[in-house]
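RETRY 2/3 - previous attempt timed out on the joint model. Re-submitting the same 512-residue input unchanged.
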Amino acid sequence: MNYDWQPLLLTFQLALIVTLILLVIGIPIAYWIAFSNNRFKYVFETLVSMPLVLPPTVIGFYLLIAFSPQYAMGHFLESALGLKVVFTFTGLVIASVLFSLPFMVNPIKAGFQNFPTALIEASYCLGKGSWETLWRVILPNIKPALLTGVVMAFAHTIGEFGVVLMIGGNIPGRTQLASIAIYNEVEALNYQTAGVYALVLVVVSFIVLFLFYYLNRRVLRIF
Amino acid sequence: MINLRLKRQMQTSRGPEWIDLDLSMASGGFVSLFGKSGAGKTTVLRMLAGLIPPQEGRIEVDGDVWFDSGRKINKPIQQRKVGFVFQDNCLFPHMTVRENLAYACLPGHHDGIQEWIGLMGLSGLEGRKPHQLSGGQKQRAALARALVGRPRMLLLDEPFSNLDRQARLELQDEIMRVYRKTRITMVLVSHDLWETFRMSEMIFVIDRGRITKNGSPDEVFVNNDLSGKFQFTGEVLDICKEGVVNILTLGIGHQITKVVAGDEEISDLKVGSMVIVAAKAFNPLLFKI
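RETRY 2/3 succeeded.
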C-alpha cells in the first residue's frame, strides 16, 4: 500500500519554521512582559494567552476574515505586496505562530520572572547594559525555560487542527497537514492509512517530549 | 568629597517610612553605615550605586553629579563605576571564577584577572563554578570581581553576614588589605558592631532612615566621659528582678555574662538595648588562655 508522506513532511516543516520564528519573537515579547512597568502590558499579556482558552476555530475564523482578499487587510496584502495568506503555506505559518505564541512566551516569561533580580543588578554594577546582561547572564541561566518553550511550541504546532484547517484549507501538497490528512482518511474509511499517520505523530511526539525531559534534567544538573 | 542628600520612602515591617538624610564623607576613606535591620542602610547604598533613584535629593562624588532631582540628572549605574559586593555574592552561576572576573573587564583588558585571583587567595580555584566554592571563597571571588574593573568606589552590602566566624574574619582582613593597597573609597553597610568598629574610619549610625550619630568609631561607640579602666559594649539579653536588685544578662562579644543593676539604671533599658559595661573600681585579673 502506498502512503503519501507529504502531509507529515509538511507538518514537520511547518513546526520547525514556526518554532524558529517563535523563538526569535518570543524572547523579546517575554522579556517585555516580565520586566516592563508599562500599564498596558497586562492587556498584551492577556492577548498573548488568548489562544490557550479560545477554540482554535475562533482564531481561524478571525484570521480567515482578516486575511481574506475580500476584506481590507487581505486585499492590501495581495494587491500591494502580492502576498496571499489564505489557503497558502504562509497562512499556515502566520496562524500557527499566533496560535502557538503562548506556548513559547509563557515558559520564557516565567524563566525571566523567576530569575534573581540581584544577578541582573550585579551585571549592571559591572558596567553592562540590559542587552549584554540578557545575552550573557539571563539567557544562559534560563535554558530549561527556553527548552520548554521550544518543545511546547514545536509539539503544539504538530498537533494543530482547527486553526490550520480554517486558514489553510485542505489542499494536498500545499496546506494539508498530518492532522487534517488523518481526518480525511477516517472520513474515507481508510483506517490503515489514518493509523500509519497517527502512529508516526505519536512516535515523533513521544521522542520529542522524551528528549525534552531528558535534556531538561541534564541542563538543570549543570547548575 | 562625597555628598549625599537623599529622600525616599521605604517599606518596612512597621509600614512606610522615609529615608531623609544628608551626609558627607571624604573620598578615599572607609565609611560604614551602621544600624539595625530595616533602618534604611541598604536602601542608601542602592541609591548611591544607582540601583534605585531617590525621590528627591542630590548625589555628588568628587564634583561629579550622579543624581540631582532638581536638574533631572540621574547618571546610569553603568557609568558610575562602582564595585558592589552583595550579601549573597551574586556570582553568575554558569561562569567559572575566571569567567566571572573576565565579565567585569572591558574587552582586551583582562590583564588584572590573574593578579586579583592571586591576591584573593583563589589560585587553583579559577576554573571552578560558584557552587563548587565555600561561602568564604565565593565572597572573595565576588570581591575580586567587584575590584578587577578598577571601580572608583567599593560598596559592601553586609558581605560577611552569611559567613562563619573564621571566614568572616579572613574576609575582613582581605578587605582591609585591599583598602590599604588601593585606597579607594569603601562604604560598608553592616549591623554588626564589631566589624563596623574594627574596619571603619568614619561611621554613620542610621535609624529609621535618619542619621542619629556620626563620627570615628571611638566617638560613636565609646563613651569617653566615663573614667573606667576598661569598658565593653554589649546587648541586653534578659532583665530579671531578684529581690531588691535586677540581674541583667548581657551578650558581650561571644560571651554571655550577668551583672547586677539598680532600678534606676535599668529604667530605660529593655531586651535588645545596647549598653556600655564599664568597671572602674578595681584592676581586672588577667589570665592567659
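The domain at 6-222 of chain A is CATH 1.10.3720.10 (MetI-like fold). Closing ticket.
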